[in-house]
Structures
1.
Amino acid sequence: MNHVPQYLHWWFIQISVPNLTAIGLMVVVFALALVLPYPRRRTRGIGQ
Amino acid sequence: MNLTSSLRNRLERKVALEDLLPDELPSYVHAYVYLFGIATIASLFLLILSGIWLAMAGPTWWHVSNLGHYVNSVHFWCVQAFFFFMVLHLWTSFFQGAWRDGRGATWTVGVLCFLVGLGTAFTGYISQQNFDAQWIAVQGKDALNAIGVGAFFNVLNFGQMYGFHIVVLPVAVSALVGLHLLLVRTHGVVRPYPANDREGDQ
């Protein structure tokens, strides 16, 4: 961790590659959590 | 009625064991997005365990021994997981309008968890005892001096920052997360927004 990361610079936006990767990964995980079907087991649930 | 009995009566009214330890959940929580909160708490649990180990062994150990490097890395990556899942939990709560139906306190305490968590991570980064820590501390001091708290929160003072990081702020984060969890349990998970009824809109 003791080195300067690579930075991307576009207009007024400046962000390091590790930070951009983390944000991109979060968006992907969030989208997958929304669309992937949750496995349904035989559990008791209110309203089921 | 004295303070003890009034507190007991209040707890009996407000906190029911079946709410604290439910064995049934609403059907709408059967989705992966509802796992981000517990993933955050799991990260915090591992953070505290690895942090206790690091605090007992000390900076020399975590810098020179293989096991120290490993535990230090576990602590570091748990921080990444903690914020990763906390932000995903925040996105989920925001898009669900999780403050609705009397859940404003739950939302507010969650915001406080995030803010105090930021301070805990910051003091952790400047407690690493490496060049990265020195760089962050020297940059951070200007920001703190600019807002007028540099005299009380001196980021170049390792002892003060380490004390904040291993005692004051973790206790605050743990207490706030505990309160957040209690509020979630007592108020329940917010119902999703109703499905868009196109005929009703017209």
2.
Amino acid sequence: MTAIEAPRIREKIERPPSLLRRLPTSSIAMIGLGLIVFWVLAALLAPYMPLDPPNKQFYTAFSHPAPSAQHWLGVDNRGRDILARIIFGARRVLTVAPLAALAAYAIGCPLGLAAGYYGGKVDAVISRVGDVILSFPIIILYVILISTIGPSILNIIIAVVVASGPGIARIVRGLTLEQRHLDYVAAAELRRENAPFIMFVELLPNCRGPLITDFCLRVGYTVITIGILGFLGLGLPPPDPDWGTMVREATVMISVHPYMSLFPAIAIVSLVLGFNLLADGVRELSMRE
Amino acid sequence: MIPVIARKLVSLVLTLLAASFLVFAVTEFSPGNVARKTLGPYAPQESVDLLYHKLGLNDPLPVRYARWLGILLGLKADPLQDPALKLDFVDPRGDRYFGNFGYSSLYKASVNDVIWTRLRATALLAGLAFAVIVPLSMLFGVLAGMREGGALDRTISVFGIVATSIPEFASGVFLVSIFVVGLSLLPGTSPLTTDTGWPIWTQLVLPVTVLVLYDAGYLVRMVRGSMVDVMNRPFIRTALLKGLSFRSVVVRHGVRNAMIAPFTVILLQINFLISGVVVTEMVFAYPGFGRMILDASLFGDISLIEAATLIALMVAVTTQFIGDIGYALLNPQIRLR
């Protein structure tokens, strides 16, 4: 006996064009995207560009460290080419920041979904623990964590997960509570779908709008955090270039050669601005729906 | 209302206990380090061993936390003042009093001798910044939000995004380059003493500006969002249609209603401010609380870290508490559960 396949009726649903399609209509989002793309390209192409090695010390350049034809942005207080260090530093920050934000989402999303979907005791435990971590002034939490476990890429990612996971969980929980009582969830429960399916396949995609905005903001904030840790002397270990550490090392020379700290500071600001502008543009677009 | 406040107070104390336990667990995770770090790298091994036993560092973490709490509340004597340890530490307040935070290995003194002057300096900095941030962001938030999408709104919103994209250490570098290196108008460091030749108030200008720039950018956008919401409500249209001028509609109907939501955000802002203070104090070598926490963490001064975080947490949690209560009082539609 052959299985009879019921004819599936698929009506075309009229949907508004996707967010990605409408992105070019927002000039703010495009400027932000442009800044991000600029740094991503710089980071990707760094090994193929005619740059000096980022850790090489030019003792001859040291007597005239200011920007010149050889060293476009000058050299730092150890005679290393600032342009090369900024571009190679972009590689580091553009891998660690998105990775850390993704890891925080990987922990925060399931917790928030579980809290919002199950409610009751599960919600109480997750929310209470989250509240404790959120009651910390965030930089103090970072300083204590990193100074105890030591600065490394993995430890910075761990610290970001600990510090911003609860915030993500709180947002996801709120979004889940909004959707929890809608018909499509009831329909899925009626079909006897299991809880993880409902949470990750039904609920999560419907919460994506605000989460995309939050993710952009969070990557930007993580860039700031990595910069701050570097500036406070808790950054990624030397000698490889790290923007925050570059600013820190150059501040001793600020009264003589302010450009040494200005250029890496401008690099951080432009990248963060990119993520923040993109987030704002996306938020505005999703509100116009 | 009273039972609600009581319940919130209980949860406040529980949060503080949990958070301070977390800090305790992180800083005292390896007990061998505690004795060594307290006595310093050059202390003889016998003293370290003696302290190890005196502090009962073999005990499980919760027991040690309870002991720390006992010393803090004045129920137990502080074992560090024992002359046998050769620490040369005598607290004039005695070894058993309420608020005993113990011994700071970084400053070689009682934590209480170190912490309060630092806290006062930071309160001055944060208070000044707060006094500028709140009216400034309310003004610009209302101006931007009263005509959504207008030229003023666009300009203020973009400025807001740019301001929140500049971390404190970067704006510090920019401002120092312009006003200190370029124009020589202001001092680049703020030791809060007059022997550098700069009056105290000039030393406060740049740190306060740095804090205001970063935090106001965020708050302006919050106030703006709230104002936009209110201006889209029917009662605003009614007020306009009944012939009130736009100006009085904004002032009498708009602003009042728009202030409810940002009230909590403004108080939560204090948490941000404490974070920002750490970085700002570092930029300007300001002798404050934030830089002390950083120094203590880098040095491994466990008692000082625990004391300072507890105080920072108390400030943060208390302002959140006030925010919750005030929010309920301001808005009769919200009933605290």
